[in-house]
Every structure is written in C-alpha cells, then in structure tokens.
Amino acid sequence: MFVLLGTGVDRAMGQTPTYEWINPAGGSWNDPSNWSEGVVPGPGDDVEFLLAGPLQVVTTGATAFDLLVRGSSTEIIAPGCDPPGLGIDIFGTVRIEGDGFGAPGRFRITDADCQLSNINRILVDRPDAGASGINSLELAGGTEVSVDEMTIDPMACLRILMDADREFSKPFLTAEDPAEMIGGLRLSGFNGSFPPIGTQLEIIGTSGGGMVLMPRFGLIEAPFAVDVDFEVELDTFGPFDARATATIEPASMLLEAEEVQVSEPYSSRIVEIDVSDFDGSGGSDFVFFRADGMVDVLLRVPGGEFTPAISFFAGNNIVDGTAGDFNGDGTSDIAVITADGKDFGTLRLFFNAGGADDRDWSIGPTLTISGEPVSIVPIGFGEGMLAARRGVAVTSKEGGSRGVTRAVETTDSGASENGEVEVGDDPGPSDPIDDENKKDPDAPIGVGGTEEGLVGGAKFYVLRPFDAPGNGLQLINTLDLPGAAVDFASADLDWDGSMETLVITENDALVLLNPLEPWIQTGFAVSLPEGAMSIAIGELSSANAVPFVTIGFEDGRVRIYRFENGERLAFRLFLEEELRFDPESGEVRHLEIADDFAPRLIGGFQTASSSVAMTFRVDMTSVPGCTQADLDGDGRVGAGDMGLLFGAWGRCRDCAADLNGDGVVDGEDLALIFSLWGPC
Predict the structure, then answer these.
(1) What pLDDT is attached to residue 80?
(2) What confidence score (pLDDT) does residue 402 get?
(3) 178 preceded by cis ω (within 30°)?
(4) 303: DSSP letter
(5) I need a labelling partner for 340 at 20 to 30 A (CA). Which of 18, 319, 413, 582 fits?
(6) CA-CA distance, 603 to 617, in Å (whole number)?
(7) How distant, in Å, are the alpha carbons of 79, 201, 232, 499 from that of 73?
(8) 455 within domain boundaries
(9) 71 lies in some domain
(10) Across the chain, how many H-helices and E-strands are there?
C-alpha cells in the first residue's frame, strides 16, 4: 500500500535534515544504513532518491513528509498483504523530476494494493533539456493511490502496469481536484502477466467537482489476440465525476505480417527510403539512397511486389535523398544532397520521364549549399495543387552551430536559393507535414532541432513555403519537445482536416503534436520501449481504412500500432503486433508505408557491416469464433482443445488447429485458445 496524507503532521520550526538514499543496490527502507543520516526517516522528514538506479526499495512500514525522485529510477515495493503491513505514508508532496544533467525521474509503486492510499500532492515535471528519458509515475501490481492534488506535465507520463492478480474494483488512481493529468497514459502488462479476458478494471477515477483534465494521448499494449476497450466517461450516478475503465476482451481482428522481399545485403548503409509513383502506374514504388552514392529505384508489379528498375550513382557521400516533381512535368524525380567538404554540400537533381528503365532518366542541375548538409524534403511555391514552381528545402548546419533551412527553386535548367530560415543550433530530420505521400506541393514541412540558452531545449520547427521571391520559406510555429527528434511522421489521424505529427525523440518518447494549430503550443508525450529510431504512418490493411503507426527499434523490432479516436482520450494507439528479427538483421533505421492497392511496410535495416531493405505484407483478419476453437466439440474451449492443438503443432494445411489460417500451428494459435477459454 502507498499512503500519502495531506494533514495530521506538523513539522518542527527550523531546518530539518534531508534523508538521502545512499545504497546503490537498493534494499530495505527500514534499514538505517541505507540513509544518509544513519537513521530511518520519520513523518516530518524529507527524503530524496538521487542515485540513478534502477533501485528497488522494499518496505513493511515507512513514513516521511516530502519525497523527491530526481534523476533516479526508483521502485517502492510495499507487499502489505501477506502479512499485513503499514505501507508507506507520505504527508507532503511526491515530486518526480530530472537531475538537470540528462537523467529523468521514474517512480514506480508496486504491490501497494491492500489499503486505499490518501495522497496530498503529486507533481510529475517536464523533462530537462537533453534528458535521456521523460519523467514518469508508474503504478504496478494492483497499487491504489488517492491524490488530493495532481499535476502531470504534458511532456510526462502516467504508466499503469496491470497483472492477472488484480482483485480490487477501486481505481489504480483516484484524483481529487485540481487534477491536471494531461501527460501521456501508457497501459501495459506487468512481469509477463496481463488481466484475463472479461476483466473490467478501473484505471482512473476523479471526484471533487473541480477542474479535472484527463490524458489526451495513450499507448495501450496488450498481448497477442487480446484487446482493451478503453473508455473515459462521465460517471453521473457513481462515486466519481469521471472515470477511465479498461475492459479486457478477445480481439475481433488480428493483424498478420509476412516478410515478402529482402534485398541483397549492401556494404554501404541506407541513408533514406522514400515512396513515390515513378512510372505513372498509380501504384507506390520506392527508392532507397545509400551512403556510397548509389540510388536504387524499385517499381510495383501487378502482384503488389517490387522489382528493381534502375540503379545509378548520384555522387559520393549521400547524406539524404527524396522524391518529388522537381521540374513540373508531372512525374516523380529524385534529389539528393551530398557532403562534399567540411562546410558545404551539393544538391543534385535527376529527372524522370517515365521511370521504366535507364533511358527515362537524365542528370539535372546541381547547386552548392553552404554548411554541413543534414536533410532534404520536396516543397512547392504557390497555392495548393496549382503551385507551378517546385523545389526542395535543404537543412544544413552552419559554422558548427547555426541550423538553417533553405528554400531552393528547381527547374529543368537550374536550381536557385529562394530564402532561408534559422532552425536552432543543431538541426535534425525534416519531412513534409502531409498525409498524402508528399502529393501536396505547398505542404508545410517540419524540422527537428535543438536550441541553447534560456529558452533552449529540443524544438520542432514548422515552415511553410511561400510564392515570394527571395522569401520562399517562413517559420510559422515552434513547438517544444522533451528530447531531440530522431524521426517523425504526419497524418490526419482523426480525419478532422488538421494534421497530427508523431515524433520519436532520442530519449524514447513518442510525442503527439498539432503542428498547424498555432493556439496549441504544447505536445503530449508517452514513454516508449528503449531504442526507438524510426516511424511511419499509413493504412496497412487493404480491407480496413484505419491508420497504423509503425515504430522501428535499434534491436531489430518493429511495433505496429492501430490508431483509434476517442471522445476524451482522443488519440489512442493499440499495439497490434511486434515483429522480431534475428539481432543480426540490425537496427530498423527507416520505415515507409506504401498504402495503395496492396499495402506494404518497407524497412531499412542496418548492422555494423551491411544494410538490407525488407518489405512486409500486413493485413487484418477476423478472429475465429468460439465454436471454431472448440476442437473437441464439448461446448467449451479448454484443456482438451489445447491438447489437440499441441498434437497438430507445426506446419499443416487446412487443419482445424490452425485457427488463424497461416499454415502453421504455433504460439499464435495457442494464444487464441487462451483468449477464447471457457464455455462456448
């Protein structure tokens, strides 16, 4: 149990010592040798956890006034059920913050589920500039906490870790007013466990009649074949003003991903992958750019796969590349930026007249760009689809510190600069803020970067092309990020006519931005598993027009999330599938989605010595009904059906135990048996 009481304790006048945890190995709260003062703190004392950790601190009874977690990963385990214990009573404020030098604060309370806790105040702060993670409050193993006053910064996270032993109907978190829980919400399993099908859990309950702000952005991670019906609703006739509930259900649809094609390994790394229609067929072809200067174009064939069409040398040391119509003839061309010296690069254009073979391509103009090149994106100058002037925006680093994005107008005969905008001190990735695969030529673009100074930190710059000689690019918005951008993607996720952008940051946060709404000056962040490095958004299912968000990780994993729009937790991402590859496949540096007649997910994988491109067929299929899983026909899904499934384990064709129809009886079919367990 975790108890934090706001009344009943008066601290003596004068300076009181601060009790700092000093054992880097964790240990017992009740052991005096673990504290800086050599004694266990009491109800009027302040305690601090400053060691990086991770720390596990066990207690069967503890008291303090204020509790600070600064730059530390601290878990308080209060197993007060068997035998009953006193738990931990905190009479002042729990504050979770970074240490100012890059380490975030993460505070987890585990197994405190035997008594309702009464908390005065919890503050989860915005992360420091350059922090290695976002600050978070985590409640695990059935912990219940009641808070009189709560503030979670939009760039911080509340994480609920649910397990199969949850027996209590009260919420994990009960909030009085004011309760500003506008950071991200992440729901996950705990220690390999997850609540069984049919469980309904109270996640958050609010009462008091005052100001309550619930989370807007959530990440929900359930096991395979399990879904979570997450609802945030007014509770007019119940004990709460509003509540958030999670009902564990069997999934009605399953996402299936199949590796379709793998390129030959390349000794040079892939620096970028882009999707465009190069041959005018209406399908999505793709191109990948390699650091050794090679550009490879692959075209769609009627079956939906890709076939190599052209490969050419574009210049040494390609930093980035993109596709777009750069001479106004209606076909997709290619632009690359190469690093040619310490303080300059070269823009190189290649024009396309049809895309079928080498004869359709020609070398276009070049332009020297000052500074160290970083990224390139297509732009158009004008109004909507009528924009007659085309070009690119090139972001570079000037003089080792100053970031600049330049507008460059391109034609058949030349390329010329048309204005520039400063974008921080250390610019990063750039991309159009457009969900139509860069088909809108005057789409705004986003640029990630960082700034130093009093209002420094990680930034997201929004630039718009304008049809103005010498002033073709203007800064229209600047948004804060909890860490430097690694990759981002944009789409109108909720179909309201306004773009949303999802940004992966270097400190493993996923940030939801509304970049084109100047009155929304903040984003909303949720923590991600470690090592996120690439993201793409698109429709992966040919039978279901639902946006999917795919995230690649440095250990070779690809996570696929389904987007769902809600009334109060407006933006929800549900984990549908996690693709795991041999670690030798390498880091997932790049992801793109070709979301046309035969959707494909395209990934660029990088190892220490080589790189490959892979394509995947992804689709949604219906989950078999209960009667289909009742293999022995006894009216229930149970041990007998599981035995028959194990008897058919392995590859099979048209066998009853292959519940998901993928041609093999394996763990996914077993998961379906468990998800449908019980009377049928």
Answers:
(1) 56
(2) 84
(3) yes
(4) T
(5) 413
(6) 12
(7) 19, 27, 30, 35
(8) no
(9) yes
(10) 3, 55
Whole-model pTM: value is 0.85
Residue-level pLDDT at 4: 44
Q: Decide if 435 is inside a domain.
A: no
Looking at residue 538, its pLDDT comes to: 86
CB 165 within 8 A of CB 193: yes
In this structure, are residues 408 and 416 in contact, taking their beta carbons and an 8 Å threshold?
A: yes
pLDDT at 116: 45
CATH number at residue 666: 1.10.1330.10
d(CA 464, CA 379): 9
**Beta carbons within 10 angstroms of residue 362's beta carbon:** 13
Phi, psi dihedral angles at 201 (to 5 degrees): -115, 140
> Taking a C-beta distance cutoff of 8 angstroms, is the pair 407, 420 a contact?
yes
The pLDDT of residue 544 is: 66
Instruction: Determine, yes or no, domain membership for 647.
Output: yes
Q: With CA atoms as reference, report the closest residue to 184 among 531, 575, 569.
A: 569
Residue with tokens 């209406």: 282
Which of 195, 226, 251 is the endpoint of a domain?
A: 251
Q: Distance (Å, rounded) from C-alpha 390 to C-alpha 407? A: 10
Measure the CA–CA gap between 10 and 200, rounded to whole angstroms.
Answer: 40
Q: Which residues of the chain have pLDDT under 50?
A: 1-8, 13-14, 81, 83, 115-116, 385, 435, 437-439
Angle of helix 667-675 relative to helix 639-647, nearest 10 degrees, comes to 170
Cα 322 to Cα 305: distance, rounded to the nearest angstrom: 21
Q: How far apart are CA 410 and CA 144, in angstroms?
A: 61
Q: Residue for token digits 């003839």?
A: 329
Taking a C-beta distance cutoff of 8 angstroms, is the pair 289, 267 a contact?
Answer: no
- Cα distances from 348 to residues 133, 326, 370, 396, 410, in angstroms, run 38, 11, 14, 15, 11
Cα–Cα distances in angstroms (integers) from residue 306 to residues 230, 439, 560, 602, 613, in the given order: 39, 21, 22, 11, 11
C-beta separation of 676 from 629 below 8 A? yes
Last residue of a domain, one of 205, 234, 251: 251
pLDDT of residue 126: 81
pLDDT of 612 reads: 84
Query: Could you give phi then psi for residue 444, rounded to 5 degrees?
Result: -60, 160
Query: Residue 648's domain spans which residues?
Result: 626-679
Task: Measure the CA–CA gap between 387 and 348, rounded to whole angstroms.
Answer: 22
Q: What pLDDT is attached to residue 521?
A: 66
Domain count, the chain: 2
**344-352 vs 361-370, strand pairing mode:** antiparallel
